């Protein structure tokens, strides 16, 4: 009978030891899984941040291209306008006189409109209207007279 008890004790001890090993394995597996999930979560956060930075860089590059295209278009328009003005050539004296007076008269009219708007516009709309009129008058003054400094009329 001692052998049976010894055999039963060995079986029970082996079973308990096997269960303890299984529990330890499961606990270790649980912690490994948590660690793997934490690692994956950090990796996904990093990738999300990287994608966000890439999108920001692309957006900034696109905005820079738009600004460059707008600037290039403005300069192209200015160059075409100056070329068209230079291509007109000489005509009758009275035509040249009218052409020479067009810019100053239009500029004076723009500044007169600006002054009239400033003195007679209702208060809420006054600021926006005056800003627009001032922009137009300033642009006209600088553009129209800016390219006249070096030209001399032939007699």
UniProtKB/TrEMBL annotation:
Keywords: Membrane, Transmembrane, Transmembrane helix. The keyword Transmembrane applies. The chain crosses the membrane at residues 6-25, 105-121, 127-145. This is Holin. It comes from Hyphomonas beringensis.
């Amino acid at each position: 009978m001692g052998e049976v008890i010894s055999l039963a004790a060995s079986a029970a001890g082996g079973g308990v030891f096997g269960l303890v090993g299984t529990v330890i394995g499961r606990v270790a597996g649980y912690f490994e899984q948590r660690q793997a999930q934490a690692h994956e979560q950090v990796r996904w956060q990093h990738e999300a941040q990287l994608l966000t930075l890439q999108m920001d860089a692309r957006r900034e590059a696109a905005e820079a291209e738009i600004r460059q295209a707008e600037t290039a278009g403005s300069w192209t328009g200015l160059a075409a306008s100056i070329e068209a003005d230079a291509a007109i050539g000489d005509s009758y004296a009275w035509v040249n006189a009218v052409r020479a007076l067009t810019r100053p008269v239009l500029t004076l009219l723009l500044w007169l409109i600006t002054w009239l708007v400033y003195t007679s516009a209702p208060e809420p709309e006054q600021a926006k209207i005056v800003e627009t009129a001032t922009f137009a008058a300033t642009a006209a003054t600088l553009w129209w007279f800016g390219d006249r400094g070096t030209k001399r009329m032939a007699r």
